[in-house]
Amino acid sequence: MNPLQERIHAHFEESIKVKQLAQQVLPDATAEAALLLFNALANDGKILICGNGGSAADAQHFAAEMTGRFERERMELAAIALTTDTSALTAIGNDYGFEHVFSKQVRALGRSGDVLVGISTSGNSANVIEAIKAAHERDMNVIAFTGRDGGKIAAMLRDGDVLLNVPYPRTARIQEVHIVLVHALCDAIDAMLMDGLSA
Ligand SMILES: O=C(CO)[C@@H](O)[C@H](O)[C@H](O)[C@H](O)COP(=O)(O)O
Ligand SMILES: [Zn+2]
Protein backbone atom coordinates (compact mmCIF):
# COMPACT_ATOMS: atom_id res chain seq x y z
CA MET A 1 0.00 0.00 0.00
CA ASN A 2 1.18 3.54 -0.66
CA PRO A 3 1.00 6.11 2.19
CA LEU A 4 -2.39 7.42 1.06
CA GLN A 5 -3.87 3.95 0.87
CA GLU A 6 -2.38 3.16 4.29
CA ARG A 7 -4.05 6.21 5.73
CA ILE A 8 -7.41 5.17 4.32
CA HIS A 9 -6.86 1.61 5.53
CA ALA A 10 -6.25 2.95 9.05
CA HIS A 11 -9.67 4.62 9.06
CA PHE A 12 -11.32 1.27 8.43
CA GLU A 13 -9.16 -0.43 11.08
CA GLU A 14 -10.02 2.17 13.71
CA SER A 15 -13.71 2.20 12.82
CA ILE A 16 -13.87 -1.60 13.16
CA LYS A 17 -12.07 -1.42 16.52
CA VAL A 18 -14.45 1.22 17.92
CA LYS A 19 -17.50 -0.66 16.67
CA GLN A 20 -16.24 -3.81 18.41
CA LEU A 21 -15.77 -1.83 21.62
CA ALA A 22 -19.29 -0.43 21.27
CA GLN A 23 -20.65 -3.92 20.62
CA GLN A 24 -19.34 -4.91 24.07
CA VAL A 25 -20.71 -1.95 26.01
CA LEU A 26 -23.90 -0.73 24.28
CA PRO A 27 -26.42 -3.54 23.58
CA ASP A 28 -28.23 -3.36 26.98
CA ALA A 29 -28.73 0.41 26.88
CA THR A 30 -29.69 0.26 23.19
CA ALA A 31 -32.39 -2.34 23.97
CA GLU A 32 -33.68 -0.03 26.73
CA ALA A 33 -33.74 2.85 24.25
CA ALA A 34 -35.65 0.73 21.71
CA LEU A 35 -38.30 -0.13 24.32
CA LEU A 36 -38.60 3.51 25.37
CA LEU A 37 -39.15 4.61 21.76
CA PHE A 38 -41.53 1.75 20.97
CA ASN A 39 -43.67 2.42 24.05
CA ALA A 40 -43.80 6.15 23.30
CA LEU A 41 -44.90 5.53 19.70
CA ALA A 42 -47.41 2.85 20.75
CA ASN A 43 -48.99 5.37 23.14
CA ASP A 44 -49.36 8.11 20.54
CA GLY A 45 -46.16 9.86 21.56
CA LYS A 46 -43.60 11.26 19.16
CA ILE A 47 -39.84 11.46 18.90
CA LEU A 48 -38.02 14.81 18.67
CA ILE A 49 -34.38 14.60 17.57
CA CYS A 50 -31.55 17.16 17.64
CA GLY A 51 -27.79 17.52 17.17
CA ASN A 52 -25.21 19.69 15.40
CA GLY A 53 -23.22 19.19 12.20
CA GLY A 54 -22.87 15.48 11.43
CA SER A 55 -25.24 14.79 14.31
CA ALA A 56 -27.86 17.08 12.70
CA ALA A 57 -27.58 14.82 9.66
CA ASP A 58 -28.05 11.81 11.95
CA ALA A 59 -31.15 13.44 13.46
CA GLN A 60 -32.65 13.90 10.01
CA HIS A 61 -31.62 10.41 8.93
CA PHE A 62 -33.38 8.90 11.98
CA ALA A 63 -36.56 10.98 11.57
CA ALA A 64 -36.79 10.08 7.86
CA GLU A 65 -36.57 6.38 8.65
CA MET A 66 -39.39 6.75 11.17
CA THR A 67 -41.80 8.80 9.04
CA GLY A 68 -40.91 7.09 5.75
CA ARG A 69 -39.53 3.61 6.24
CA PHE A 70 -36.42 1.68 7.25
CA GLU A 71 -36.08 -1.67 5.44
CA ARG A 72 -39.69 -2.84 5.31
CA GLU A 73 -43.08 -1.33 4.59
CA ARG A 74 -44.92 -0.31 7.74
CA MET A 75 -47.10 2.43 9.19
CA GLU A 76 -45.66 5.94 9.45
CA LEU A 77 -44.05 6.67 12.84
CA ALA A 78 -44.05 10.12 14.46
CA ALA A 79 -40.60 11.69 14.52
CA ILE A 80 -39.36 15.23 13.89
CA ALA A 81 -35.78 16.42 13.40
CA LEU A 82 -35.45 19.84 15.08
CA THR A 83 -32.56 20.72 12.74
CA THR A 84 -34.40 21.46 9.50
CA ASP A 85 -36.59 24.55 9.87
CA THR A 86 -34.22 27.34 8.86
CA SER A 87 -36.74 30.02 9.79
CA ALA A 88 -37.09 28.69 13.33
CA LEU A 89 -33.34 28.07 13.65
CA THR A 90 -32.37 31.54 12.43
CA ALA A 91 -35.10 33.43 14.30
CA ILE A 92 -34.50 31.66 17.60
CA GLY A 93 -30.72 31.81 17.13
CA ASN A 94 -30.83 35.49 16.23
CA ASP A 95 -33.33 36.58 18.88
CA TYR A 96 -32.41 34.34 21.83
CA GLY A 97 -29.01 32.76 21.07
CA PHE A 98 -27.87 29.58 19.37
CA GLU A 99 -28.09 27.58 22.57
CA HIS A 100 -31.89 27.93 22.44
CA VAL A 101 -32.53 26.76 18.85
CA PHE A 102 -33.66 23.29 19.95
CA SER A 103 -35.07 23.99 23.42
CA LYS A 104 -37.66 26.50 22.15
CA GLN A 105 -38.86 23.90 19.64
CA VAL A 106 -38.98 21.22 22.36
CA ARG A 107 -41.12 23.49 24.56
CA ALA A 108 -43.38 24.26 21.61
CA LEU A 109 -43.82 20.71 20.33
CA GLY A 110 -42.98 18.38 23.21
CA ARG A 111 -45.64 16.75 25.38
CA SER A 112 -45.49 14.31 28.26
CA GLY A 113 -44.91 10.84 26.81
CA ASP A 114 -42.82 12.08 23.89
CA VAL A 115 -39.12 11.24 23.74
CA LEU A 116 -36.22 13.58 22.96
CA VAL A 117 -33.18 12.08 21.24
CA GLY A 118 -30.17 14.40 21.76
CA ILE A 119 -27.00 13.65 19.83
CA SER A 120 -23.62 15.15 20.82
CA THR A 121 -20.24 13.48 20.41
CA SER A 122 -18.67 15.73 23.08
CA GLY A 123 -21.70 15.52 25.34
CA ASN A 124 -21.26 19.25 25.84
CA SER A 125 -23.11 21.13 23.08
CA ALA A 126 -25.09 23.90 24.76
CA ASN A 127 -28.12 23.70 22.48
CA VAL A 128 -28.49 19.94 23.11
CA ILE A 129 -28.09 20.53 26.86
CA GLU A 130 -30.85 23.19 26.77
CA ALA A 131 -33.06 20.84 24.74
CA ILE A 132 -32.69 18.15 27.42
CA LYS A 133 -33.62 20.67 30.14
CA ALA A 134 -36.72 21.62 28.12
CA ALA A 135 -37.64 17.94 27.62
CA HIS A 136 -37.44 17.34 31.36
CA GLU A 137 -39.68 20.38 31.94
CA ARG A 138 -42.19 18.81 29.56
CA ASP A 139 -42.01 15.47 31.41
CA MET A 140 -40.38 13.77 28.43
CA ASN A 141 -37.79 11.02 28.63
CA VAL A 142 -34.46 11.53 26.90
CA ILE A 143 -32.17 9.25 24.94
CA ALA A 144 -28.68 10.81 24.73
CA PHE A 145 -26.19 9.68 22.10
CA THR A 146 -22.79 10.88 23.32
CA GLY A 147 -19.06 10.10 23.15
CA ARG A 148 -15.86 10.45 25.18
CA ASP A 149 -16.95 10.49 28.86
CA GLY A 150 -20.51 11.55 28.03
CA GLY A 151 -19.76 15.15 29.06
CA LYS A 152 -22.28 17.35 30.85
CA ILE A 153 -25.15 15.56 29.13
CA ALA A 154 -24.40 12.22 30.80
CA ALA A 155 -24.49 13.96 34.18
CA MET A 156 -27.90 15.59 33.64
CA LEU A 157 -29.91 12.49 32.69
CA ARG A 158 -32.67 11.35 35.05
CA ASP A 159 -34.28 8.02 35.92
CA GLY A 160 -36.05 6.69 32.84
CA ASP A 161 -33.60 8.38 30.45
CA VAL A 162 -31.08 6.31 28.48
CA LEU A 163 -27.40 7.11 27.83
CA LEU A 164 -25.84 5.64 24.69
CA ASN A 165 -22.21 6.66 25.17
CA VAL A 166 -19.36 5.66 22.88
CA PRO A 167 -16.29 5.78 25.16
CA TYR A 168 -13.79 6.88 22.53
CA PRO A 169 -12.08 10.26 21.93
CA ARG A 170 -12.43 10.80 18.15
CA THR A 171 -15.59 12.51 16.84
CA ALA A 172 -15.70 10.77 13.45
CA ARG A 173 -15.47 7.32 15.03
CA ILE A 174 -18.15 8.18 17.61
CA GLN A 175 -20.46 9.35 14.83
CA GLU A 176 -19.92 6.10 12.94
CA VAL A 177 -21.15 4.15 15.96
CA HIS A 178 -24.07 6.55 16.41
CA ILE A 179 -25.35 5.71 12.94
CA VAL A 180 -25.11 1.98 13.71
CA LEU A 181 -27.21 2.69 16.80
CA VAL A 182 -29.79 4.60 14.74
CA HIS A 183 -30.16 1.63 12.41
CA ALA A 184 -30.25 -0.86 15.28
CA LEU A 185 -33.08 1.17 16.86
CA CYS A 186 -35.01 1.36 13.56
CA ASP A 187 -34.66 -2.40 13.16
CA ALA A 188 -35.70 -3.10 16.77
CA ILE A 189 -38.79 -0.88 16.50
CA ASP A 190 -39.81 -2.57 13.23
CA ALA A 191 -39.31 -6.03 14.72
CA MET A 192 -41.36 -5.17 17.82
CA LEU A 193 -44.08 -3.59 15.70
CA MET A 194 -44.34 -6.17 12.93
CA ASP A 195 -42.94 -9.45 14.31
CA GLY A 196 -44.03 -9.07 17.93
CA LEU A 197 -40.38 -9.22 19.06
CA SER A 198 -40.13 -8.75 22.83
CA ALA A 199 -37.23 -7.90 25.12
O1 LIG B 1 -19.42 15.91 11.50
C1 LIG B 1 -18.60 16.55 12.11
C2 LIG B 1 -17.29 15.96 12.45
O2 LIG B 1 -17.18 14.64 11.94
C3 LIG B 1 -18.87 17.95 12.56
O3 LIG B 1 -19.78 18.58 11.67
C4 LIG B 1 -19.44 17.97 13.99
O4 LIG B 1 -20.67 17.29 13.99
C5 LIG B 1 -19.62 19.40 14.49
O5 LIG B 1 -18.34 19.95 14.71
C6 LIG B 1 -20.47 19.51 15.77
O6 LIG B 1 -20.68 20.86 16.07
C7 LIG B 1 -19.86 18.80 16.99
O7 LIG B 1 -20.78 18.88 18.06
P1 LIG B 1 -20.90 17.77 19.19
O8 LIG B 1 -20.91 16.42 18.54
O9 LIG B 1 -19.71 17.93 20.12
O10 LIG B 1 -22.18 18.06 19.90
ZN1 LIG C 1 -18.34 14.42 9.96
Automatic annotation (TrEMBL):
The listed locations are: Cytoplasm
- The residue ranges of the SIS domain are 37-199
Protein name from the UniProt record: Phosphoheptose isomerase
The UniProt subunit note reads as follows: Homotetramer.
Q: According to its UniProt entry, what is the function of this protein? A: Catalyzes the isomerization of sedoheptulose 7-phosphate in D-glycero-D-manno-heptose 7-phosphate.
In terms of InterPro entries, this protein maps to: GmhA/DiaA, Phosphoheptose_Isoase, SIS_dom, SIS_dom_sf, SIS_GmhA/DiaA_subfam
Key word Oxidoreductase present? no
At the top of the EC hierarchy, this enzyme's class is isomerase
